[in-house]
Amino acid sequence: MRRSIRALTAALLALPLALAVAPSAHAADPTTMTNGFYVDPDSSAKRWVAANPGDGRASAINASIANTPTARWFGSWSGDVNAATGAYAGAADRADKLPLLVAYNIYNRDYCGGHSAGGASSPSAYANWIAQFAGGIGNRPAVVILEPDSLGDYGCMTQAQIGERERMLTGALAEFNRQAPNTWVYLDAGNPGWTSPATMAQRLHGAGLRQAHGFSLNVSNYFTTAENTAYGNAVNNELRARYGYTKPFVVDTSRNGNGSNGQWCNPAGRRIGTPTQLGGGAEMLLWIKVPGESDGNCGVGAGSSAGQFLPEVAYKMIYGY
């Protein structure tokens, strides 16, 4: 027996550092528990197509956007979030598909930018909300993107506020580990145009990344998959050098087919990217933002509100003009 233990120890020590560190807080792999990704039957694109069957754009939007698996976002608008995530994960489970969910309700959300300000009313309210979110998923397989943009901009925050945010995210990851053992959680890491890999690695680690399955990139943005892959690898190099571990990452490819022109709010001339799939330079390429949903009253979405589906914008994204 002692010889077997010594042999096992030697084998583990011989592994590269990135492999010797467990890549996930969970043993379960939700991608192997399901048969492909779940298409949200009530996405904004689906609803628009159903309501406008005679529109000349409907066929293209239905074929290229509405039937691609995309994430459903949950926040204060979701009502009883335990029931909401439970119903969504349950519907996906009955279809034997893997659902993509976004938790977007952190206290002082978008505190510095203000474009998507809101969120829970206090840190304790957020802790309760995220516990209900995780509890709704339960043992069902799922992928969760945790709080897009929460680590991207600390420019206007005090150190006390930064610490408060890190504790909220760490607590959220602990809830998923406790209540949702078949969920892969990706802590959001912004995009390549926001902050340096070294800074982002520090922020991710401070927010409890070691407890997460991985991190997410490019949510609601436009940087190419290659740019995101290079950035994700650079973040992992910093994590390895500073803290002795690396993590898988996913990329939002929903609107990055033409790359970024430097604008983030409804820029013209963008294009849909590679549909949701495993691999592609990252662990997964995902559609986290629905193409055609407005970023706000700006750019080619002037006069719209954030999240509003704009069929002309969606249609042009299909063809890249």
Write down the Rg.
20 Å
Distance separating the two termini:
66 Å
Overall pLDDT metric? 91
Please bin the fraction of helical residues.
25-40%
Can you summarize the main beta sheet? 8 strands, mixed
Placed side by side, the strands forming the largest sheet appear as 1-2-3-4-5-6-8-7
- Residue stretches low in confidence (pLDDT < 50, at least 5 long) are 1-23
**Would you list the SSEs in sequence order as H and E?**
HHHHEHEHEHEHEHEEEH
The quaternary organization reads as single chain
Helix vs. strand class: alpha/beta
Query: How many DSSP H or I helices?
Result: 10
As a percent range, the share of strand residues is 5-15%
Principal-axes shape call: globular
Total count of strands:
8
Structure description:
It contains ten helices and eight strands. The protein has 321 residues and is of the alpha/beta class. An eight-stranded mixed sheet has the order 1-2-3-4-5-6-8-7, with helices on one face. The longest helix is centred in the middle third of the chain and has 21 residues, at 159-179. It starts with a helix and ends with a helix. Residues 1-23 have low confidence and may be disordered.
